[in-house]
Amino acid sequence: MKTRRSFLKTSLFAGAGIPLAAGFGRAIAAKADGAGDYVWPFSSQNPSVVYTFNARHLRNLDLNAPGSAEKVWETLHLLAALQGLANRNAPRFYLFYCSEYGIDTDQFWFDWFRGEDGWLRNTQILPLTDLTTTILTLRDAFDGLAVYDPNVPATSNLASTAAGVERLLPVRLDRSPTSLF
User: Is the Cβ–Cβ distance between 93 and 50 less than 8 Å?
Assistant: First the structure.
């Protein structure tokens, strides 16, 4: 006897492979044909330039201090969206932030990608020094802003969704001089 739960599990399991196969079909086919290294699904070659941004300084802010948590949130929210948009068609932007349990995770993977057999070994790396330079450098990756109301928490989720669909950057409405808005 099939229950609704078993039907949903089977459907989700069977359906989950379809988007993956569709998106990575070219990469899998290229590897199977002996084309060599892994091929980015949307590009025929490795990127010639990858921009990086070091957001590790945000980890040093005291999240209990007034405004610090909001600054970390709105900056990482914007950077994560920008990373997704900039990397939509090919890898172009790498963000350094994550570090847990004594391991700088982002640096570990970046070094791995840049290693002797890494797919970024011949790629020129251009560090971006501040948020303004980062946004200006990757300006072609987005079309505008999705501004959300900090007094209605769900609007940040809506802004994130709209940002991905409409090529926008989510930004918290804040008229203070240090705001990203």
Answer: yes
Query: Model confidence over 141-153: pLDDT tens digits?
Result: 999 999 999 899 8
Nearest to 86 by CA among 132, 50, 58, 118: 50
Contact assessment for residue 26 and residue 41, using Cβ atoms and an 8 Å cutoff: yes
pTM for the full model?
A: 0.72
**Token pair for residue 180?**
């990203």
| Conformation bin of residue 167: beta by default, left when phi > 0, alpha when psi is -120 to 50 | left
Decide if 71 contacts 78 (C-beta within 8 A): no
Burial class (CB in 10 A: 0-12, 13-18, 19+), 154: exposed
Give the tens place of pLDDT for each residue, 20-34: 333 333 443 444 444
